[in-house]
Amino acid sequence: MSDTSNERSSGRITMVDLARLAGVSVPTVSRALRNLDSVLPETRTRIHALAAEHGFVANAAAQALRGRAARKTAIVFDFQSSGPGSTSPDAFIFELLGDVAHALTIRDFEVTLCPRENSVERYERQLTEIGASGAIFLGQGGQHEMLQALAARFPIIVWGAVLPEALYCAVGSDNFKGGQLVGEELKGRKRTSILLLGNPQTEQVRLRFEGFRASYGVGQHRMIETLPVGFSYEEAYRAVLNRIKDTPKRLDGIFAATDTLAMAAIRAVREIDLVVPDDVAVVGYNDIPQSQAFDPPLTTIREDDRRAGSLLVEKLMQIRDGVRASSVRLDVTLVRRAT
After folding, report:
1. Domain with CATH 3.40.50.2300 in the chain
2. Distance (Å, rounded) from C-alpha 96 to C-alpha 138?
3. Which residues, at least 6 apart from 162, have a Cβ–Cβ distance to it below 8 Å?
4. Low-confidence ranges of the chain (pLDDT < 50)
5. Domain 72-172+305-330 annotated CATH 3.40.50.2300
6. Cβ pair 310, 103 in contact under 8 A
7. pLDDT tens-place string over residues 31-61
8. HEC string of the chain?
9. How far, in Å, CA of 232 to CA of 179, rounded?
10. Model pTM greater than 0.70?
11. What does the buried/exposed string (b/e) look like for 87-106 if buried means 16 or more CB atoms within 10 Å of the residue's CB?
12. Options 3.40.50.620, 3.50.50.60, 3.40.50.2300, 3.30.750.24; which CATH number does 175-303 get?
Protein backbone atom coordinates (compact mmCIF):
# COMPACT_ATOMS: atom_id res chain seq x y z
CA MET A 1 0.00 0.00 0.00
CA SER A 2 1.33 3.45 -0.89
CA ASP A 3 2.15 6.15 1.64
CA THR A 4 -0.73 8.30 0.39
CA SER A 5 -3.13 5.35 0.69
CA ASN A 6 -2.02 4.85 4.27
CA GLU A 7 -2.56 8.53 4.96
CA ARG A 8 -6.04 8.44 3.37
CA SER A 9 -7.17 5.36 5.26
CA SER A 10 -5.87 6.68 8.57
CA GLY A 11 -7.12 10.23 8.06
CA ARG A 12 -3.62 11.52 8.92
CA ILE A 13 -2.90 13.49 5.76
CA THR A 14 -1.69 16.94 6.78
CA MET A 15 -1.55 20.29 5.06
CA VAL A 16 2.16 19.68 4.49
CA ASP A 17 1.33 16.40 2.72
CA LEU A 18 -1.34 18.13 0.65
CA ALA A 19 1.10 20.86 -0.35
CA ARG A 20 3.62 18.23 -1.46
CA LEU A 21 1.02 16.39 -3.52
CA ALA A 22 -0.06 19.62 -5.18
CA GLY A 23 3.48 20.85 -5.73
CA VAL A 24 2.85 24.14 -3.94
CA SER A 25 3.69 25.75 -0.60
CA VAL A 26 1.74 25.24 2.63
CA PRO A 27 0.47 28.86 2.64
CA THR A 28 -0.82 28.35 -0.94
CA VAL A 29 -2.81 25.32 0.24
CA SER A 30 -4.17 27.34 3.15
CA ARG A 31 -5.25 30.19 0.87
CA ALA A 32 -6.71 27.79 -1.70
CA LEU A 33 -8.83 26.01 0.91
CA ARG A 34 -10.15 29.42 1.95
CA ASN A 35 -10.92 30.19 -1.72
CA LEU A 36 -8.83 33.36 -1.70
CA ASP A 37 -8.37 35.17 -5.03
CA SER A 38 -4.61 35.32 -4.48
CA VAL A 39 -4.48 31.67 -5.68
CA LEU A 40 -5.14 30.95 -9.35
CA PRO A 41 -8.55 29.29 -9.96
CA GLU A 42 -7.00 26.19 -11.55
CA THR A 43 -4.67 25.80 -8.55
CA ARG A 44 -7.58 26.14 -6.11
CA THR A 45 -9.53 23.52 -8.06
CA ARG A 46 -6.59 21.09 -8.06
CA ILE A 47 -5.99 21.49 -4.32
CA HIS A 48 -9.68 21.02 -3.47
CA ALA A 49 -9.76 17.88 -5.62
CA LEU A 50 -6.66 16.46 -3.92
CA ALA A 51 -8.10 17.27 -0.50
CA ALA A 52 -11.28 15.39 -1.33
CA GLU A 53 -9.42 12.47 -2.92
CA HIS A 54 -7.16 11.95 0.09
CA GLY A 55 -9.72 12.64 2.77
CA PHE A 56 -8.01 15.73 4.08
CA VAL A 57 -9.48 16.94 7.36
CA ALA A 58 -8.19 20.22 8.77
CA ASN A 59 -6.42 19.53 12.06
CA ALA A 60 -5.35 21.98 14.74
CA ALA A 61 -2.08 22.75 13.02
CA ALA A 62 -3.81 23.47 9.72
CA GLN A 63 -6.44 25.57 11.46
CA ALA A 64 -3.62 27.57 13.00
CA LEU A 65 -2.83 28.90 9.54
CA ARG A 66 -6.20 30.62 9.57
CA GLY A 67 -7.89 33.24 11.69
CA ARG A 68 -6.44 34.43 14.98
CA ALA A 69 -4.11 31.45 15.41
CA ALA A 70 -2.31 32.41 12.19
CA ARG A 71 -0.68 35.20 14.17
CA LYS A 72 2.06 32.92 15.42
CA THR A 73 5.67 33.16 14.26
CA ALA A 74 8.51 30.77 14.96
CA ILE A 75 12.00 32.09 15.68
CA VAL A 76 14.57 29.41 14.87
CA PHE A 77 18.12 29.41 16.22
CA ASP A 78 20.66 27.18 17.98
CA PHE A 79 20.33 27.06 21.75
CA GLN A 80 23.57 25.28 22.64
CA SER A 81 27.21 25.30 21.59
CA SER A 82 28.65 22.07 20.28
CA GLY A 83 32.24 22.49 19.15
CA PRO A 84 33.95 23.83 16.03
CA GLY A 85 30.89 23.33 13.84
CA SER A 86 28.67 25.16 16.26
CA THR A 87 26.40 27.95 15.12
CA SER A 88 25.33 28.57 18.69
CA PRO A 89 24.06 32.06 19.43
CA ASP A 90 26.57 34.78 20.15
CA ALA A 91 25.57 37.64 22.47
CA PHE A 92 24.61 39.63 19.37
CA ILE A 93 21.98 37.03 18.42
CA PHE A 94 20.31 37.35 21.82
CA GLU A 95 20.04 41.10 21.27
CA LEU A 96 18.59 40.53 17.82
CA LEU A 97 16.18 37.96 19.27
CA GLY A 98 14.85 40.61 21.64
CA ASP A 99 14.42 43.12 18.80
CA VAL A 100 12.56 40.59 16.63
CA ALA A 101 10.30 39.48 19.48
CA HIS A 102 9.48 43.12 20.25
CA ALA A 103 8.67 43.84 16.59
CA LEU A 104 6.34 40.84 16.49
CA THR A 105 4.69 41.61 19.81
CA ILE A 106 3.75 45.17 18.88
CA ARG A 107 2.09 43.69 15.77
CA ASP A 108 0.12 41.35 18.05
CA PHE A 109 1.92 38.21 16.92
CA GLU A 110 2.65 35.31 19.22
CA VAL A 111 6.30 34.15 19.33
CA THR A 112 7.50 30.56 19.62
CA LEU A 113 11.21 29.71 19.94
CA CYS A 114 12.29 26.62 18.01
CA PRO A 115 15.58 24.69 17.78
CA ARG A 116 17.23 23.90 14.48
CA GLU A 117 16.29 20.67 12.72
CA ASN A 118 18.32 18.49 10.38
CA SER A 119 15.94 18.15 7.42
CA VAL A 120 13.39 20.14 5.45
CA GLU A 121 10.70 17.61 6.37
CA ARG A 122 11.36 17.99 10.09
CA TYR A 123 11.23 21.77 9.77
CA GLU A 124 7.90 21.57 7.94
CA ARG A 125 6.42 19.22 10.49
CA GLN A 126 7.70 21.24 13.45
CA LEU A 127 6.43 24.56 12.10
CA THR A 128 3.07 23.14 11.08
CA GLU A 129 2.52 21.32 14.38
CA ILE A 130 3.07 24.49 16.42
CA GLY A 131 0.73 26.39 14.12
CA ALA A 132 3.30 28.90 12.84
CA SER A 133 2.34 30.86 9.75
CA GLY A 134 5.95 31.92 9.20
CA ALA A 135 9.46 31.51 10.58
CA ILE A 136 12.42 33.79 11.20
CA PHE A 137 15.82 32.07 11.15
CA LEU A 138 18.54 33.83 13.14
CA GLY A 139 21.53 32.80 11.05
CA GLN A 140 21.84 30.33 8.19
CA GLY A 141 23.65 27.94 10.51
CA GLY A 142 25.38 26.17 7.62
CA GLN A 143 21.96 25.11 6.28
CA HIS A 144 21.84 27.18 3.10
CA GLU A 145 20.65 24.34 0.83
CA MET A 146 18.04 23.26 3.35
CA LEU A 147 16.71 26.81 3.59
CA GLN A 148 16.58 26.98 -0.20
CA ALA A 149 14.22 24.00 -0.24
CA LEU A 150 12.19 25.13 2.77
CA ALA A 151 11.55 28.59 1.30
CA ALA A 152 9.59 27.00 -1.55
CA ARG A 153 7.25 25.34 0.94
CA PHE A 154 6.90 27.72 3.87
CA PRO A 155 7.17 31.49 4.52
CA ILE A 156 10.62 32.12 6.00
CA ILE A 157 13.02 35.04 6.40
CA VAL A 158 16.67 34.68 7.38
CA TRP A 159 19.03 36.91 9.32
CA GLY A 160 22.42 36.16 7.83
CA ALA A 161 24.55 36.46 4.74
CA VAL A 162 22.80 37.90 1.69
CA LEU A 163 23.79 35.39 -1.01
CA PRO A 164 23.21 36.05 -4.72
CA GLU A 165 22.04 32.49 -5.37
CA ALA A 166 19.58 32.39 -2.45
CA LEU A 167 15.93 31.63 -3.18
CA TYR A 168 14.98 32.83 0.29
CA CYS A 169 14.83 36.42 1.49
CA ALA A 170 17.61 37.48 3.87
CA VAL A 171 18.45 40.52 5.95
CA GLY A 172 22.04 40.90 7.10
CA SER A 173 25.07 43.09 7.35
CA ASP A 174 27.54 43.58 4.51
CA ASN A 175 29.86 40.88 5.82
CA PHE A 176 32.32 41.12 2.93
CA LYS A 177 32.71 44.87 3.39
CA GLY A 178 33.16 44.38 7.14
CA GLY A 179 36.04 42.01 6.49
CA GLN A 180 37.55 44.45 4.01
CA LEU A 181 37.51 47.23 6.62
CA VAL A 182 39.36 45.01 9.09
CA GLY A 183 41.92 44.03 6.45
CA GLU A 184 42.62 47.65 5.63
CA GLU A 185 42.92 48.51 9.34
CA LEU A 186 45.41 45.76 10.20
CA LYS A 187 47.42 46.34 7.03
CA GLY A 188 47.58 50.05 7.86
CA ARG A 189 48.84 49.17 11.33
CA LYS A 190 51.69 47.14 9.77
CA ARG A 191 50.51 43.82 11.18
CA THR A 192 52.06 40.95 9.24
CA SER A 193 50.89 37.71 10.89
CA ILE A 194 47.11 37.49 11.27
CA LEU A 195 44.91 34.88 12.89
CA LEU A 196 41.33 34.62 11.61
CA LEU A 197 39.25 33.30 14.50
CA GLY A 198 35.88 31.73 13.68
CA ASN A 199 34.15 29.02 11.68
CA PRO A 200 34.37 29.76 7.92
CA GLN A 201 31.82 27.03 7.19
CA THR A 202 29.10 29.44 8.29
CA GLU A 203 28.10 31.84 5.54
CA GLN A 204 28.50 35.11 7.43
CA VAL A 205 31.95 34.23 8.78
CA ARG A 206 33.08 32.97 5.39
CA LEU A 207 32.21 36.30 3.77
CA ARG A 208 33.93 38.26 6.56
CA PHE A 209 37.13 36.30 6.06
CA GLU A 210 36.91 36.55 2.27
CA GLY A 211 36.57 40.32 2.55
CA PHE A 212 39.56 40.43 4.88
CA ARG A 213 41.77 38.46 2.51
CA ALA A 214 40.69 40.62 -0.45
CA SER A 215 41.80 43.87 1.19
CA TYR A 216 44.69 42.65 3.35
CA GLY A 217 46.36 40.68 0.59
CA VAL A 218 49.12 38.10 0.88
CA GLY A 219 52.84 38.26 0.22
CA GLN A 220 56.29 37.50 1.49
CA HIS A 221 55.79 39.60 4.61
CA ARG A 222 52.10 38.93 5.21
CA MET A 223 50.79 35.67 6.62
CA ILE A 224 47.19 34.64 7.35
CA GLU A 225 46.01 31.52 9.17
CA THR A 226 42.52 30.42 10.15
CA LEU A 227 41.60 28.90 13.52
CA PRO A 228 38.12 27.34 13.13
CA VAL A 229 36.05 27.62 16.30
CA GLY A 230 32.35 27.87 17.09
CA PHE A 231 30.79 30.86 18.82
CA SER A 232 31.63 29.67 22.35
CA TYR A 233 33.76 32.01 24.48
CA GLU A 234 35.48 29.17 26.35
CA GLU A 235 36.19 27.20 23.19
CA ALA A 236 37.76 30.25 21.54
CA TYR A 237 39.81 31.08 24.63
CA ARG A 238 41.28 27.58 24.84
CA ALA A 239 41.93 27.42 21.09
CA VAL A 240 43.83 30.72 20.99
CA LEU A 241 45.79 29.90 24.15
CA ASN A 242 46.84 26.54 22.71
CA ARG A 243 47.76 28.11 19.37
CA ILE A 244 50.03 30.70 21.01
CA LYS A 245 51.66 28.20 23.37
CA ASP A 246 52.13 25.35 20.90
CA THR A 247 53.19 27.24 17.76
CA PRO A 248 56.40 29.24 17.83
CA LYS A 249 55.29 31.49 14.95
CA ARG A 250 54.44 34.90 16.38
CA LEU A 251 51.04 36.53 15.84
CA ASP A 252 50.63 40.28 15.81
CA GLY A 253 46.98 40.54 14.75
CA ILE A 254 43.68 38.71 15.31
CA PHE A 255 40.43 39.21 13.41
CA ALA A 256 37.65 37.51 15.38
CA ALA A 257 34.34 36.73 13.68
CA THR A 258 32.41 38.11 16.68
CA ASP A 259 33.08 40.39 19.64
CA THR A 260 32.66 37.47 22.03
CA LEU A 261 35.45 35.59 20.27
CA ALA A 262 37.61 38.73 20.27
CA MET A 263 37.23 39.07 24.05
CA ALA A 264 38.17 35.40 24.50
CA ALA A 265 41.24 35.94 22.33
CA ILE A 266 42.35 38.96 24.38
CA ARG A 267 42.09 36.92 27.57
CA ALA A 268 44.31 34.22 26.06
CA VAL A 269 46.86 36.73 24.76
CA ARG A 270 47.14 38.41 28.15
CA GLU A 271 47.69 35.11 29.94
CA ILE A 272 51.05 34.68 28.24
CA ASP A 273 52.08 38.25 29.07
CA LEU A 274 51.50 39.79 25.64
CA VAL A 275 50.05 43.30 25.48
CA VAL A 276 47.01 44.33 23.43
CA PRO A 277 47.40 46.13 21.08
CA ASP A 278 51.19 46.67 21.29
CA ASP A 279 52.05 43.01 20.71
CA VAL A 280 48.79 41.75 19.24
CA ALA A 281 46.07 43.92 17.71
CA VAL A 282 42.55 42.48 17.98
CA VAL A 283 39.43 43.39 16.01
CA GLY A 284 35.96 41.95 16.62
CA TYR A 285 32.61 42.09 14.82
CA ASN A 286 29.07 43.17 15.89
CA ASP A 287 29.78 46.00 18.38
CA ILE A 288 27.71 44.50 21.17
CA PRO A 289 27.24 46.78 24.23
CA GLN A 290 29.94 44.94 26.18
CA SER A 291 32.52 45.92 23.54
CA GLN A 292 32.76 49.51 24.66
CA ALA A 293 32.79 48.58 28.35
CA PHE A 294 35.44 45.87 27.86
CA ASP A 295 38.96 46.47 29.17
CA PRO A 296 40.45 47.59 26.89
CA PRO A 297 37.50 48.88 24.80
CA LEU A 298 37.25 46.68 21.73
CA THR A 299 37.90 47.80 18.17
CA THR A 300 35.14 46.21 16.10
CA ILE A 301 32.79 46.33 13.13
CA ARG A 302 29.46 47.99 13.84
CA GLU A 303 26.42 46.77 11.94
CA ASP A 304 23.49 49.02 11.14
CA ASP A 305 21.33 46.64 13.15
CA ARG A 306 18.84 49.11 14.60
CA ARG A 307 16.45 48.27 11.77
CA ALA A 308 17.23 44.56 11.64
CA GLY A 309 14.43 43.29 13.90
CA SER A 310 11.67 45.36 12.30
CA LEU A 311 12.98 44.62 8.79
CA LEU A 312 12.91 40.86 9.40
CA VAL A 313 9.31 41.04 10.59
CA GLU A 314 8.25 43.40 7.79
CA LYS A 315 9.74 41.13 5.12
CA LEU A 316 8.13 38.04 6.65
CA MET A 317 4.73 39.72 6.59
CA GLN A 318 5.20 40.43 2.88
CA ILE A 319 6.11 36.81 2.18
CA ARG A 320 3.11 35.54 4.18
CA ASP A 321 0.88 37.73 2.03
CA GLY A 322 2.30 36.27 -1.16
CA VAL A 323 4.53 39.24 -2.01
CA ARG A 324 8.05 38.58 -3.32
CA ALA A 325 10.30 40.29 -0.77
CA SER A 326 13.79 41.46 -1.67
CA SER A 327 16.82 40.85 0.53
CA VAL A 328 18.48 43.72 2.38
CA ARG A 329 22.20 44.18 3.05
CA LEU A 330 22.84 46.61 5.94
CA ASP A 331 25.88 48.88 6.00
CA VAL A 332 28.85 48.43 8.34
CA THR A 333 31.51 50.75 9.80
CA LEU A 334 34.78 50.25 11.65
CA VAL A 335 34.77 51.49 15.26
CA ARG A 336 38.33 52.20 16.43
CA ARG A 337 38.86 51.83 20.15
CA ALA A 338 41.84 50.56 22.14
CA THR A 339 42.61 47.05 20.82
Report:
1. 72-172+305-330, 175-303
2. 8
3. 170, 171, 172, 327, 328, 329
4. 1-11, 59-62, 64-65, 68-69, 81-88
5. yes
6. yes
7. 788 777 767 888 888 888 888 888 776 544 4
8. CCHHHHHHHHCCCCHHHHHHHHCCCHHHHHHHHCCCCCCCHHHHHHHHHHHHHCCCCCCHHHHCCCHHHHCEEEEECCCCCCCCCCCCCCHHHHHHHHHHHHHHHCCCCEEEEECCCCCHHHHHHHHHHCCCCEEEEECCCCCHHHHHHHHCCCCEEEECCCCCCCCCEEEEECHHHHHHHHHHHHHHCCCCEEEEECCCCCHHHHHHHHHHHHHHCCECCEEEEEECCCCCHHHHHHHHHHHHHHCCCCCCEEEECCHHHHHHHHHHHHHCCCCCCCCCEEECCECCHHHHHCCCCCEEEEECHHHHHHHHHHHHHHHHCCCCCCCEEECEEEECCCC
9. 21
10. yes
11. bbbbbbbebbbebbbebbee
12. 3.40.50.2300
Cα–Cα distance between 265 and 275 in angstroms, integer?
12
259-271 helix and 233-246 helix, angle to the nearest 10 degrees: 40
CATH number of 3-63: 1.10.260.40
Q: Note whether 203 and 161 are within 8 A (CB).
A: yes
Between the alpha carbon of residue 281 and those of residues 194, 266, 275, the distances in Å are 9, 9, 9
Question: Which residues does 327 contact at the CB level (< 8 Å), separation at least 6?
Answer: 162, 166, 169, 170, 171
